[in-house]
Amino acid sequence: MNPLAKDLNDQIAAVNPHVLEMLSDFGKGLYFPKGILSQSAEAKTKATLYNATIGTALESGTAMNLASVMAPLAGVSPNEALLYAPAGGVPELRQAWQAKTLADNPDLAGAPVSLPIVTSGLTHGLSLLGDLFIDEGDVLLLPDKLWGNYRLIFGLRRGADIRTFPFFAEGGFNQNAFAASLQELAASGVKKVVVLLNFPNNPTGYAPTKAEGEAMAASLLAAADQGMNVVAITDDAYFGLFYGEEPMRQSLFTKLAGKHPRLLAVKGDAATKEVFVWGLRVGFLAYSVGGADSDSPLYQALMAKTMGCIRSMISNCCRLSQTLVLGSLTSETFYAERAAKVALMGSRALEVKRVLANPAFDEAWDAYPFNSGYFMCLRLKKIDAESLRVHLLDAYGIGTIAIGDTDLRVAFSCLEVEQIQDVYEKIHQAWCDLAKA
What is the DSSP string of 202-219? Predict the structure, then answer.
């Protein structure tokens, strides 16, 4: 093992040996190299005469650039747009995202949480977590209503043993099934479990109530109390898109951060949906575990390993994207702008609920509960989802997503309010075409 990796492992073990046990073999071997990057960083502060370390081209002290590249970027300097970003992300952006997270999640005040690391979107962040924490055969626990890319990220890439439990029961989150799954793993002698919970959920658009969130946290803490190491990942991709009074308004991460030495909570989130910048690919990862203060060497070591993984994969994340997101977060109008868009999305969700109340649709489907996010799902009767999806495309020019045999996902996020009734009426007509043929 590289001495740098061993030193990071020793720093983690000195604070909390359970976290070292949670790392994959690859994660244990990761380190941030003291090569070109660290030497360049040192030169940046000490090379007061000339700095000939970095593989970029400068002109009159500014990033060399083509006018045709910079012309569309009014108000952005060449350095802000074109230079490499640090491996962990632009420091000001990391601090601004942490401030936003605290503003959105006041229960995190005083909790031990690392400074977030910038990733190239949340998918990249989840891939990093797979590398850091999952060896082949490690158990990954998920609800059965899940984003299909999890199977590629964790199953195919890392060889995780993916276990699922029923997501819904009695119109809400199936807490009994979740708790039973964790208890079964603990009773069977599983030493480590990675749990991934995505709220608001893709594909269903469901976010838990406060009571459901508290029950989830209690189940995870109970598993840790029984001696199982728990890596609890909250995929908060759609955070903030809550509609009505029902959903819990803060991240599940707030109920897990710093609560137990055997429970490592990881908050994965992104500007993608929260700032409505899908193609900019700016995500974040933050860590918290019981027994480690916010400035603990344990977090410094985990961040160094994460940055080493980023370095080995993509070198660093896009500087221009980070500059644009930082500009939005630090704008005086950010929260008002975001609230207006959330309200617009909420009006679409409410219109979907109004339309679905039509009893004429009862013959064709039941709607899964939804109260947040971008999507809702129909549980179809008689007709399989793929047949209906194809018929909708071919006969009506309407695109939807088939999930399994029974579920059809509809993204109201990309529908205008006045389009929604027509969409569902045509889905029903297409169902009738097939069911009554």
Answer: TTT-----HHHHHHHHHH
Which of 4, 70, 12 lies closest to 38, judged by CA? 4
Residues sharing a CB contact under 8 Å with residue 59, sequence separation 6 or more, in sequence order: 65
> In whole angstroms, what is the distance from residue 267 CA to residue 254 CA?
9
Per residue in 315-370, pLDDT tens? Answer: 999 999 999 999 999 999 999 999 999 999 999 999 999 999 999 999 999 999 99
String of DSSP letters for 117-156: EEESSHHHHHHHHHHHH--TT-EEEEESS--THHIIIIII
- Assigned fold of 335-435: Aspartate Aminotransferase, domain 1 (3.90.1150)
CA distance 417 to 338: 19
Domain boundaries, the chain: 3-32+87-329, 335-435
Q: Which amino acid is at 164?
A: T
User: In which residue are the tokens 């079964």 written?
Assistant: 184
Domain over 3-32+87-329 is classified CATH 3.40.640.10:
yes
The Cα–Cα gap between 177 and 182 comes to 9
Integer Cα distance of 434 and 223 in angstroms: 47
pTM of the model: 0.96
What is the Rg, in whole angstroms, of the alpha carbon atoms belonging to the chain? 23
- CA distance to 109, 193, 195, 270, per residue, from 142 (Å): 28, 11, 6, 20
Residues 6+ apart with CB under 8 A from 247: 200, 207, 208, 209, 371, 372
CA distances from 245 to 71, 97, 250, 367 (A): 46, 26, 13, 19
- Whether 45 and 38 have beta carbons less than 8 Å apart is answered as no
Q: Looking at residue 383, what DSSP letter applies? A: S
Segment (H or E) for 283: strand 283-289
Q: Tell me the two tokens of residue 136.
A: 């082949």
Q: What is the tens place of the pLDDT at every residue in 190-200?
A: 999 999 999 99
